[in-house]
From TrEMBL:
Annotated ranges, domain L-asparaginase N-terminal: 32-224
Keyword tRNA processing among record annotations: no
InterPro entries tied to this protein: AsnASE_II (IPR004550), Asp/glu_Ase-like_sf (IPR036152), Asparaginase/glutaminase-like (IPR006034), Asparaginase/glutaminase_AS1 (IPR020827), Asparaginase/glutaminase_AS2 (IPR027475), Asparaginase_C (IPR040919), L-asparaginase_C (IPR027473), L-asparaginase_N (IPR027474)
Leader sequence residues: 1-23
Name the UniProt record assigns to this protein: Glutaminase-asparaginase
Active site annotation, chain numbering: 40, 40 (o-isoaspartyl threonine intermediate), 120
One Pfam family named in its UniProt record: Asparaginase
Catalytic activities: L-asparagine + H2O = L-aspartate + NH4(+); L-glutamine + H2O = L-glutamate + NH4(+)
Length: 347
């Protein structure tokens, strides 16, 4: 080898050795679609220390995605804005639109899972609705935040990264809809909001969590399983659901609100009753009449926990808290008006 050639060869080897090793292009990343509906995770405030006075649903889905470029490391992410509002404004039209959009998206082979960004106030209702109406084993992950996007230490961006990581994970298959917040994974079937303002608000006191995140990676405590007797509903041809109202239980409660709700068009009633779904004597006649008229009255509990047992009066709500019992009753009434079949979904 001539000297000049040898020098070039040495330089070439030296340059190649000094070059950073380029990681092999990762195989196609899992596809995850984010359906945005608003809430605090998309909220903004004039002050970065005010975590209670802010506008929910102020930031669009693209801005949410732009705030977390790390999402691209775990999934091929697309976004769709379904609504942009505080979750107390989520109604059955939005629920039906969202569930249909998710069923359609999950049917595409490139989609591994979906994430729904949502206000935390009624997140459990939407999660429960999706759990009962999405026909797929692929992950459906609900995510929210307790601090608006503009706050110091906003929790939304990390929650979103964890939710997308979960939706992209094979470990999340066959677990129904899940709720991700505060580094925990909860089942949407059982989990409920338990604190008005704190970060660790989503819990299922009796049933616990499905898993947790460590450095944004999901760890499950159990193999995939379904809640006992979990029903499912096909809403593909449904455009509206029957009206169901919830009435709170308290000392001195009487029947006038129950009667007013029915006069106002309620096709079913859920009582957020005291204790094990107690019905005060003053309401008994109205409950019996409603049941006889084909309007189911579900006795749930305001206590936050417990399986409300069957009694002579009305229908015991079983494992469902009042807000979940309402969602279930709306779905059941869209399928049947047979009171014994309705009872069977709860008791
Ligand atoms: N008010 C908000 C909402 O539900 C609360 C939240 O997202 O945390 O939209």
């Amino acid at each position: 080898m001539k000297i000049a050639t040898r020098v070039i060869a040495v330089i070439t080897v030296a340059v190649l050795t000094a070059m950073p090793v380029l990681a092999a292009e990762p195989a196609d990343k899992p596809g995850v679609t984010i359906f945005a509906t608003g809430g605090t995770i998309a909220g903004s405030s004039k002050s970065n220390t005010d975590t209670t006075n802010y506008t929910s649903g102020d930031i669009g889905v693209q801005q949410l995605l732009d705030a977390v470029p790390e999402l691209e490391d775990v999934a091929t992410v697309t976004g769709e804005q379904i609504a942009n509002t505080g979750s107390s404004n989520i109604d059955q039209a939005i629920l039906l639109k969202l569930s249909k959009a998710i069923n359609k998206q999950l049917a595409t082979p490139d989609t591994h899972g979906v994430v729904v960004t949502h206000g935390t106030d009624t997140l459990e209702e939407t999660g429960f609705f999706l759990d009962l109406t999405v026909d797929s084993d692929k992950p459906v992950v609900m995510v929210g935040a307790m601090r608006p996007a503009t706050a110091i230490s906003a929790d939304g961006p990390f929650n979103l990264l964890e939710a997308v990581t979960l939706a992209a994970s094979d470990k999340a298959m066959g677990r129904g809809a899940m709720i991700v917040i505060n580094d925990r994974i909860g089942s949407a079937f059982y989990t409920t909001k338990t604190n008005a303002i704190m970060l660790d608000t989503f819990k299922a006191i009796e049933q616990g969590y499905l898993g947790a995140f460590v450095s944004s990676q999901p760890h499950f405590y159990y193999e995939p399983a379904e809640p006992t007797n979990k029903p499912s509903f096909d809403i593909s041809n449904i455009d509206s659901l029957p009206k169901v109202d919830i009435l709170y239980g308290y000392q001195d409660a009487e029947s006038s609100l129950l009667t007013a709700a029915i006069d106002n068009g309620a096709k079913g009633i859920v009582l957020a009753s005291t204790g094990n779904g107690s019905v005060p004597k003053r309401m008994e006649e109205a409950v019996k009449k409603a049941m006889a008229d084909g309007i189911p009255v579900i006795r749930s509990t305001r206590t936050g926990n417990g399986i409300v047992s069957p009694k002579e009066m009305g229908i015991g709500s079983g494992v469902y808290n009042p807000q979940k019992a309402r969602i279930l009753l709306m779905l059941v009434l869209s399928q049947t008006d047979d009171m014994e079949k309705i009872r069977g979904y709860f008791e």
